[in-house]
Amino acid sequence: MNATSPGALLFCRADTASVRTAALLLRERLLLAPAGPDWSVLVPEGKPWREGSDPVDRVVGGWAGALTVGVPWPVVALWWDADRAGCVLATGFRRPVGYTWLADGTPAGEDEAMHTFAARLGLDPVLDVRDLEPLTRPDEHADAPARLRGLTAVLSRHGLTMPSGLAPGEPAPLLWSAAEARGAEAVEWRGVLDVVRTELDAVEEGPLGPWLCGPRARALATAQLAAGVPLLAWAVTRRSPGWATAAALLITQGALGLAYDRVRTWAQDGPAPRG
After folding, report:
1. DSSP for 117-136?
2. Distance (Å, rounded) from C-alpha 209 to C-alpha 6?
3. Helix axes 241-269, 192-204, angle to 10 degrees
4. pTM for this model (two decimals)
């Protein structure tokens, strides 16, 4: 490695649909790609550490923590620069755990950190920890990128598949080019409206999608309102709390259904221009 070769990769233990919205909130240029059945990888452009004053490890550690706020999946971030390399595991509001190696592979972290890393990720406490422990011991044949490859080899037993061309230790521009050439999805902040669209797309990709938006959803919501309003009037005249509650539920569901459809249309088309 040399002074111009900082880079990073962020592996999220979730599919790309789940990661997309969280990644948008970072407000950074990223590429998103699958990295196995239950993993995704984010490839950062690297502008914050190229043009800012913060080193790559501090930037990536902050990103990893931000990505996991309010989500059930963890993030394993790998980073490297001319002098060091390391990993950071972020899991929600818990304090991130990390480990660092010098450029020549010399361990520079606490042994207990690797055990905590394995426990929080749900790795095998015997087989996986046995293969992680050598990463914390001196090895004259293993430099910093080799240490990171050893870590990802253990994670590969749990579904992680390193996409072709994304090798730890490569400069950020090369990683970006490799991911882009293989069709990775661009994730870039364009405002709150873009986040709303992305979140609604993720919801509507599920089995309830046709009933949340579109002609079928509008028909269902209209029918609920049409049934609920006269039922409520009848329940009031008959002083029937049970039927009044049922009517109120129908009206609420119908109103929410129509409101959701309007919000979805607004998010899709954008606000109407002012005349």
Report:
1. HHHHHT--TTHHHHHHGGGG
2. 42
3. 120
4. 0.71
The dihedrals phi and psi of 42, each to the nearest 5 degrees, come to -110, 125
DSSP designation for 107: B
Average pLDDT over residues 30-41: 95
Does residue 46 contact residue 7 with C-beta atoms inside 8 Å? yes
pLDDT tens by residue, 236-272: 887 776 667 767 767 877 777 777 666 656 555 555 4
Q: Any idea how long the chain is?
A: 275
What are the extents of the domains in the chain? 7-189, 193-269
* φ, ψ for residue 80, nearest 5 deg: -160, 155
Joined tokens for residue 40 = 């995704």
Rounded to the nearest 5 percent, the helix, strand and coil shares of the chain are 50, 15, 35
Query: Looking at the DSSP assignment, which residues form a beta bridge with residue 33?
Result: 41
Q: Name the token pair of 127.
A: 């087989």
Is the per-residue pLDDT at 177 higher than 80? yes
pLDDT mean over 136-147? 94
